[in-house]
Every structure is written in C-alpha cells, then in structure tokens.
Amino acid sequence: MTEAYRHIDPTPYVEGLDPSLAPDLGPLPELRWIPISQLVIDPRYQRDIGRAGAKNVRRIAERFDWTKFGVTIVARLAEDLYAIVDGQHRTTGAAGRGIEAVPCLVIHADPKLQAESFAAINGAVTPMSRW
Description:
The structure is a single chain. This protein is α/β, with parallel strands linked by helices. The protein has one domain: Conserved hypothetical protein from pyrococcus furiosus pfu- 392566-001, ParB domain (Alpha-Beta Complex). It has helices at residues 11-14, 51-62, 88-96, 111-123; strands spanning 30-35, 39-40, 72-78, 81-86, 101-107. A five-stranded mixed sheet has the order 1-5-3-4-2. The longest helix is centred in the C-terminal third of the chain and has 13 residues, at 111-123.
C-alpha cells in the first residue's frame, strides 16, 4: 500500500543552488492556539474583505471543517495581540461559526517583513489541476 506514496526529495529542484546561501533561516516560528479576539488586521498590507471575499467567508462558515482550515499565520504585536499575515478569510469564517480560537503559526516579523510574507504567501500560488 505504501508504494503509492512518495517521500519528499528536493534533489531535482535544488540542483545548482548557490552553496554560499546564508545558513541563517531566521527565528523558528511556533505553533499555538490563539483566541480570535487577540487577532487583528494590519490595513497597511491586508485589504478589507470585499464582495468576493465576503462570499468566500460565508462559504467557509457554511462548510466549516477543521480538515480544511490549516493554520493562520500571525506575527506578535504585543503580549496578547497578533497581526494576521495569512488566513483573514478563514479566521473570519471560523468566528462566524462561533469558534473562539484557531491554530496559528506565530512568525517573528516586523510590519515590513509581515507585508513581504503576505505577498510571498498570496502571490506564489501553484494552480491546482482538475484532478
């Protein structure tokens, strides 16, 4: 049965990678369940939820299922305050279902790096195939 699965092998994708790349990958993020009441949106890089986004939030709320949620990526602003870098729509949909806390990946990033992370996560999307 396991022969149908593949292990992760980055070899064909990283051939010729510059060996002088800095070994510093930044501080490790941490996984935490964080109350939605402690999550905020930074309007400097996060747009408002528009008409299409509102439909998406409603769809998420109507069909909410933890197996389809993933993690919300956040950056700590203060002791009990975190900026959502990615996951605003999913988190809003969860809140619409009465969920009080969501799983978060807490990254260590100032506002500039938060905006860069938001752009990288939302801009580098691999289209899904029909299958």
